[in-house]
Amino acid sequence: MRYSILSVLGQALKGQKDWKPVWRDAEPKPAYDVIIVGGGGHGLATAYYLAKEHDIRNVAVVEKGWIGGGNVGRNTTIIRSNYLLPGNIPFYEKSMKLWEGLEQDINYNAMISQRGILNLYHSDGQRDAYVRRGNAMRLHGVDAELLDREGVRKMYPFLNFDNARFPIHGGLLHRRGGTVRHDAVAWGYARAADQRGVDIIQNCEVTGIRVENGRVLGVETERGFIGANKVGLAAAGNSSRVAAMAGLKLPIESQVLQAFVSEGLKPLIPGVITFGAGHFYISQSDKGGLVFGGDLDGYNSYAQRGNLPVVEDVCEGGMALMPAIGRLRVLRGWGGIMDMSMDGSPIIDKTPVDGLYLNCGWCYGGFKATPASGFCFAHTIARDEPHELNAAYRLDRFRTGRLIDEKGVGAQPNLH
Q1: Nearest one of 178, 233, 209 to 377, comparing CA atoms
Q2: Where are the alpha helices (DSSP H) in 156-208?
Q3: Beta strands in 4-77 (DSSP E)
Q4: Could you tell me which residues are beta bridge partners of residue 335?
C-alpha cells in the first residue's frame, strides 16, 4: 500500500480497517545472497540500498530483538553535517542530502525537521576553532554561519547571557541541521526494504558465524543455520561480540550513552542548541518534551541503562546554559550502547574474512549517518570495494596511522 492523502482519506471512510502491516514478519530461507546482521537503522538502510541501488533483493536482515529496539530508537534524533575533517564532511553531507529526500524516496513520514543547530562558543579560542570548522564546511558546500553574541541573543533570548559562569560569546549556526523521528526512520526503512523483497527476520539472534578456509558461509541463529554468499555486520554496540564469532578483534569499546526527555512544555526551543563549555545538547520534540543528553558514562558496559552521576552532570550543563529549565521535571531517561572507536570515527570496510563486511565504530554519530552509512555499506558489499565516501573509514587505519580524529583527543574512546 502506498501512502498518500487519498489513501488516508479512503481509510478514514472505511473506519481505518484496511491498513496492511508495514512489513512482513518473514521466516528465514535456507540461504540468501546477502545477510545483514543487525536490524537497526544502518542495517535496514543497507538492505534497502542493496535492493534499490544494486538490484540485490535476495537479502535478509537478521535482528535479535524487534525493529526499533536498539540504538536507532535510543538517541536524541539529531541530524547534521557540521564536521571539520575532509574524511568526514563529504560523508555526513551525503547523509544530509539523503535525509532531505528520504520521505519522498521511501514514501514514509519520518518527521524530518531542519530547524537548525547552533554550537555555542564561550571564548576567543573556541570562536577561532569554530571559524576554522565553518570555513571547512563551506569549502565542501555545507552551510555555516558564524554568529556573534547579539546574533545568538536574537535567536535565543532566554539563554543565560548576563550572569553566566561561562558567558556566551557567539555560535556556529548550521541551518540545515535538525531532528528526525528516530522510530519512523527504522519503520520507514524496514517498510521500503520489505517492498523491494528483503526479508526482515525479527527475534532471531545470531549465535555464530560459519567460516571455512577463510570465507564466510553464513550465520548460525536461534532458528538454525542460514547460508549466505556475503554477510554484513551492523550490530552497533554489540559489534565486538558479533565479530568475535568470526575470530575478529575490533578496535572499539562499548560504552553507555544516556539521553533524557522532560515533561511537555509549550514551544520554547525552536532549534537544537549545544553548550560549548560542557557536553550538553538540547532540542524540543513535537510532543513538547525537551530532549537532551551529554557525556558517556565513562566505562565499558553492554547495559541499556545509565547511572546517576551522568544525570547530574547533564542537568548541571543545562542549568548553566538556561536556568529557566530549573524547575522542569525529567520524565524518563534511557541508554544506548555506543561502539566507540579509537579515533572517534566509524569503520565501513571489508574484513580479512572473505565475504564478511563490517559497519561499526559510530560513537556519537550513528543516527545522523544512517542514510549515508547504508548507502556506502551497500556499495561496499555489492562491489566488494569501498565507495569514495567511505574509503577513509578503513579497518586498518589504526595500524597504518591514517586516523580521522575529529576532536583531536587521540586514542581515548571515552573522550570521543
Answers
A1: 233
A2: 182-195
A3: 31-37, 59-62
A4: 258
292 contacts 282 by C-beta, under 8 angstroms: yes
Gap between the Cα atoms of 82 and 295, Å rounded: 19
Name the one residue in this structure whose C-alpha cell is 547533564.
314
From CA 193, how far away is CA 48, in angstroms rounded?
4
What phi and psi values does residue 175 have, to the nearest 5 degrees?
A: -65, -30
Phi and psi at residue 32, in whole multiples of 5°?
A: -140, 160
**Helices 182-195 & 41-54 angle (0-180, nearest 10):** 30
3-state secondary structure of 98: helix
Q: How many CA atoms lie within 13 A of 176 on its CB side?
A: 20
In this predicted structure, the answer to whether residue 304 has a pLDDT above a threshold of 90 is: no
In whole angstroms, what is the distance from residue 271 CA to residue 95 CA?
A: 19
Cβ contact 305:150 at 8 Å = no
Cβ(250)–Cβ(360) below 8 Å: yes
| Torsion angles phi and psi, residue 255, rounded to 5 | -140, 160
* pTM, rounded to two decimals: 0.96
The angle subtended at Cα 314 by Cα 311 and Cα 320, nearest 5°, is 135
* pLDDT (0 to 100) of residue 171: 98
110 and 188 Cβ atoms separated by less than 8 Å: yes
DSSP 285-306: -TTSEEEEEEEEEEEE---S--
- The whole-angstrom separation of Cα 373 and Cα 46 is 7
Instruction: Report residue 4 as a C-alpha cell.
Output: 498518500
Cα 94 to chain centroid distance, Å, stands at 14
The per-residue pLDDT for 298 is: 86
Measured CA to CA, the distance from residue 101 to residue 246 in angstroms comes to 37
- E strands, 131-268, in order: 145-148, 170-174, 178-179, 199-201, 206-212, 215-221, 224-233, 252-264
User: Taking the CA of residue 168 as centre, how many other CA atoms within 13 Å lie in the half-sphere pointing to its CB?
Assistant: 29
Say what the pLDDT of residue 410 is. Answer: 86
Distance CA 92, CA 300 (A): 27
DSSP 390: T
Please answer whether residues 272 and 118 qualify as being in contact, where contact means their C-beta atoms are separated by less than 8 angstroms. yes
Mention every residue, 6+ apart, whose C-beta is less than 8 A from residue 331. 261, 262, 263, 289
